[in-house]
Amino acid sequence: MPAFSSLLIGHESLAIQCGQMLLDAGHPIRAVVTRHPDVQRWAEKQGLMTLSPGADLARRLNGLSFDWLFSIANLDIIPADVLSMAARGAINFHDGPLPRYAGLNAPVWAILSNEPRHGITWHLIAGGVDEGDILEQRLFDIAPNETALTLNTKCYAAAMESFPSVINQLTDGTLDRTPQDLSQRSYFARAARPAHGGMIDVTATAAEIAALVRALDHGDYRNPLTCAKLLLGTQTLAVGLAESAYGSAAPGTVLSVLPDSITIATAEGAIRLSALRHLTGAAASPVGLAN
After folding, report:
1. pLDDT by residue (tens digit) across 34-60?
2. Do the beta carbons of residue 236 and residue 212 sit within 8 Å?
3. What letters, b where the CB count within 10 A reaches 16 and e where it falls short, cover 34-51?
């Protein structure tokens, strides 16, 4: 089977995994563009040219020849003069099911929307952002207790499982292209944030509040949006865990205060909020703060 060459642009470990698959399959990578130290170290260990991203990237690539450009774990818009260098085209990995979840932080918005399923998409870079034809898509269930961290982990696994299919399409020279139905498209821009900056609205339902906390739970990884927050008296606390609880009263009524949690009545049911922290990161207790 004929080999193809590529330029790899990516800033997270997924770029390493997919890049290694390309090399193992005998497809040379002409250069790697990254700002991530681990990706750079991997590329250099493979003897690959490495560059940092930037407006003058095309000039620094200095007329490099390659068949395909891969954008994997890359949130930057690729300059048109770099895209035009790819002889056969450019392919992007997206951590959501297109066309419904275009843009950034798709797992967060899927949890907030109470979606039963999510997915990932490999698509051609063409037209507007995340609008190109789909080459490969994998869908999977969203668990009832799914967080941004666990859903991102599922996306990562699905990306690695599906990338060999993309490689096979490019190797065979027959792309399995599916145009997107853009009438079904939704788009979440870089600046999009949950309502009220992630502040918990006690007039919402317990299920909605729990979804907000889970959607903004990125574990120990960098949180690109904001954390779920609760206003207690004059203090704003970050909330790490939310669980449905027994009890009912007017929304906002404090039902229970313990050293490590607070239970509040909502528009429908009650919610127990715990893993509380001050915005400085220090652990916090609700005792003495609740009205």
Report:
1. 999 999 999 999 999 999 999 899 999
2. no
3. bebeebbebbeeeebebb
Contact by Cβ (8 Å): 150, 107 = no
pTM above 0.90, yes or no: yes
Is the pLDDT reported for residue 207 higher than 90? yes
Sign of CA dihedral 248, 252, 253, 254: positive
Residues 6+ apart with CB under 8 A from 181: 99
How many Å apart are CA 22 and CA 7, to the nearest integer? 11
Report the C-alpha gap between 115 and 107 in whole angstroms: 10
> By the 8 A CB rule, do 271 and 263 touch?
yes
Phi, psi of 226 (to 5 degrees): -165, 175
Q: Evaluate whether 240 touches 217 at the Cβ level (below 8 Å).
A: yes
Q: Which residues contact 67 (CB under 8 A, 6 or more apart)?
A: 4, 5, 6, 86, 87, 88, 170
Residues in Cβ contact with 50 at an 8 Å cutoff, skipping those fewer than 6 apart: 31, 32, 33, 34, 40, 43, 44
By CB atoms closer than 10 A (0-12, 13-18, 19+), residue 194 is: middle
Contact 270, 244 (CB under 8 A): yes
Distance of CA 238 to the CA centre of its chain: 21
| CA-based nearest residue to 206, from 157, 249, 163 | 249
Is the distance from CB of 62 to CB of 82 less than 8 angstroms?
no
